[in-house]
Design goal:
- By secondary structure, the protein is an all-alpha fold.
- The protein is about 75% helix and about 0% strand.
Length: about 90
């Protein structure tokens, strides 16, 4: 990236990263909510607060999602490092 475009590029990357973070958060909330929160036959919730089972389910669901996301990110970083090492080795 040319120096005069670096600031604009970095701003674009930050905006993209923020959008991706929000997408991931929204997916987590929607996925765990649909798996864990009980909705009655009439489409209403049983109470204003989560019951113990729902709370535990939400906690487990979000922890699993975050651990998976972390692991995927770690594996992707490993893959990228390996690929770069191969490219450097083949360039020599």
């Amino acid at each position: 990236v040319p120096p005069h475009q670096k600031a604009e590029f970095m701003q674009h990357m930050e905006e993209h990263q923020m959008k991706e973070s929000l997408k991931m958060y929204n997916f987590l909330v929607e996925d765990c909510f649909s798996k864990c929160v009980t909705v009655g036959w009439n489409g209403n919730f049983g109470s204003k607060a989560l019951d113990q089972t729902e709370g535990k389910c939400i906690k487990n669901c979000s922890e699993k999602f975050l651990k998976l996301t972390q692991r995927v990110g770690f594996r992707f970083s490993e893959y990228q490092a390996e690929k770069q090492a191969q490219e450097r080795a083949s360039a020599k």
